[in-house]
Amino acid sequence: MKTAEREQARRLRREQGLSIKELARMLDVSQSTVSLWVRDIELTAAQRDELNGRGNRAATPVLAARALATRREAQDEGRTIAGRGDPIHVAGRMLYRAEGSKHRNAVILVNSDPAMIAFFARFLRACFNVPDEEMRLRCNLFADHLERQRAIEHFWLDLLGLPRSCLCKAAVNVYSKYSKKKRQNKLPYGTCSLAVNDTRIVQHIYGAIQEYGGFDREEWVM
User: Fold this and answer.
1) Which of 3, 97, 116, 207 is least surrounded by CB atoms within 10 angstroms?
2) Cα–Cα distance between 100 and 89 in angstroms, integer?
3) Spatial contact of 29 and 2, defined as CB atoms under 8 Å apart
4) Residue pLDDT, tens place only, 122-178
5) Whole-prediction pTM value?
């Protein structure tokens, strides 16, 4: 059983009232599995109304405005903390600006450099108190990695101090006939994707990046 995913699904269902479909997509598991995990959790009246309203056109503007306000609040928080000039805070946000995936509701960094991935995990723990069980690690491998897949997965898990329950199914890229000889042994550990599904954290980061850089990107909050 995927204990970490189950506990995260239950927490997000209880605290945020997320739908089965949303939880399944975020945690990379089937909707039927999520349904079993959270079937005993009673949603509040407000959470039920919000879920029902997602299919109601009249409610959509209200829900969208509420979500936008949450993102703006998180960005404002990031701007405020940026003013403190903490070195880990500064470096982590600049690393994410350069290498991170620009998702609105999830923090995702993909890199082949173990030092960069390790530092980003340190940043998430130090600045946001992200618990290990909420981190998701996915290996992106090439054909010549398959014989060492388990060893490579353990390399990344050990590097980050994460349990195997944080590991998602690896992605394997097959070489084309043109690149096969050129690509072998180029990346001994493939690339690693480290992710945390948390809207407030990613919007906090976006706010801090703008504060450090002295610019505004309205589209980042939309």
Assistant:
1) 3
2) 15
3) yes
4) 999 999 999 999 999 999 888 778 889 999 999 999 999 999 999 988 888 766 555
5) 0.71
